[in-house]
Amino acid sequence: MEIDFTRLRYFVAVAEELHFKRAADRLMITPPPLSKQIKVLERELGGPLFERTYHDVRLTRLGEQLLGPAREILRQVEDLKSLASRITQAPSPIRIGATAYAPSDFLARLETAVADLPISTEFGVPGSAAEVAAKLVSGNIDLGLIHLPTTDKRLRYRVVASYPGAAAVRFDDPLAEHSVIAIEDLRDRDVVIDFARPNPVVLAQMTRGLNARGVTRIVRAVNQLGGELEMATQVFNRHLVALLSYAPASAIGRIFSPPEFKLIRIDESTWPPVKIALAWAPDRLGDPAGIEALAERLAGTLASSRDPA
């Protein structure tokens, strides 16, 4: 039996995300080839790895038993590659990771900026900001895009983007008549903040901030982390208010666009903007000054490439 390491990576990604779309985004491919490769791997292994329903993806008994060994095999492959690199004295690429929950248009600009660097790099989207931070402090990546705040004192960071808050509502919602609202206008409304769920620190901060301003009816719209289309459906059907970042050019901004929805800016004096930063863990780096300089360079590139609109 011959097993392709790429298909093993795909299996581990789906097993960790339990969601084919998020796993595909993390792997920087589209869902159809990911699903096809998983089916090929299932045929090679002699049984299904996942139970798929309309809303859920779960590991089968076979998948549960193979996940640990698959991770170990991939770790050994990475160790082998690192050893070979050290032996040949080839300069190791700078490993850069980004949270998948940053606005998609910003992620695209960051990936372009990284690709244009005159040095060897590896770019990936490993998951939530919390997962990126964990990879930074474990030394698995050198530079990472995260949401602030972060409570980990081992991290240093450079803010590279700031997004005002936004409320996404149905086209016929009373709030849709406004171009800007205050956060207090969401009192007595059912508010969804599901996109903060992958980052417990941000989720707790948002919940406290909303409660302090009298916004207490916080509800859940999706059963799993992510699920943009399911969230939009729930907002539309249940007349919910989704609290997001104001990023109309992003994928989520386009989902909550006319004619079905409206994305309304929230006055920054009533709700602080979301800040995104490039972070690094100096104690885990051989050249922390060099990584800090790289963060500054990328910040300048991102600022100059920002859409004036």
From TrEMBL:
In terms of Pfam families, this protein maps to: HTH_1, LysR_substrate
| Alphabetical keyword list | Activator, DNA-binding, Transcription, Transcription regulation
From which domain of life does this come? Bacteria
PROSITE patterns attached to this UniProt entry? HTH_LYSR (PS50931)
**Boundaries of every HTH lysR-type domain copy:** 3-60
* Entries under Gene3D superfamilies matching the protein: Periplasmic binding protein-like II, Winged helix-like DNA-binding domain superfamily/Winged helix DNA-binding domain
Question: Of which family is this protein a member?
Answer: Belongs to the LysR transcriptional regulatory family.
Please report the name of this protein according to its UniProt entry: LysR family transcriptional regulator
